[in-house]
Design goal:
This protein is mostly helical and 209 residues long. It is 56% helix and 0% strand.
């Protein structure tokens, strides 16, 4: 009788656990991005980021070909206020999670146009920092996270090759000065750079391809 009772108890536990597991698996599945809806939603962003995500305004980032997971994270953090920007907070505030996913995956399908460096005097310093860091000041090489050609690592580190130098300068200075606080690693690394070094590495990144 004891053995029979134990078997019945085990069966009961398994029967209870299976539906719960199926429910968890179902909840973990996210809808497939709808690229057509993503393109339609991006119409609100065209004035600042251009129709294909290749912004022609140096203060606004190129979004074309960016890793979608990174874009979703930034939109969520603009909306929550973790990343502070009044304009983007207002824009992101109108987007649902599905909207963010659709827009981000659509942007990932757009081909980024190559950028170029402008300051010949600083570009060699920028290359040195990007590829090798500054060892005596414990500044890590940017290439370690963003890859040698700036393509980044999907789901982890953003694509930065060809990004507008003006935009990158502002982001690095904001990280350094505590105005942007949504990435601890970038805050720590940017804190070690002076203005000239920030401008140099930003200009070098603009020409990466």
């Amino acid at each position: 009788m004891k053995l029979l009772a134990s078997l019945l108890m085990a069966i009961s536990v398994v029967a209870t656990a299976v539906p719960a597991l199926a429910a968890d698996e179902s909840a973990s599945k996210t809808p497939k991005p709808d690229l057509a809806k993503g393109e339609a939603s991006f119409a609100l962003c065209v004035a600042c980021h251009a129709a294909d995500g290749n912004s022609t305004i140096a203060a606004n980032p190129v979004l074309a070909q960016q890793h979608p997971e990174y874009l979703v994270k930034q939109l969520q953090e603009f909306k929550s206020g973790k990343r502070d920007d009044p304009v983007m907070k207002g824009m992101a505030g109108t987007l649902s999670d599905d909207d963010m996913r659709n827009v981000s995956w659509w942007l990932a399908t757009q081909k980024a146009k190559p950028g170029f460096s402008k300051d010949k005097e600083l570009v060699s310093l920028g290359e040195k920092i990007y590829r090798g860091g500054i060892q005596d000041r414990s500044i890590a090489a940017c290439a370690g996270c963003h890859s040698p050609n700036g393509a980044g690592i999907p789901s982890q580190y953003p694509r930065i090759s060809g990004q507008h130098a003006d935009y990158t300068v502002k982001q690095l200075m904001d990280f350094r000065d505590g105005k942007r606080g949504n990435n601890l690693i970038m805050t720590q690394e940017a804190a070690k750079l002076n203005d000239r070094e920030i401008k140099a590495v930003s200009d070098y990144i603009a020409g990466l391809r």
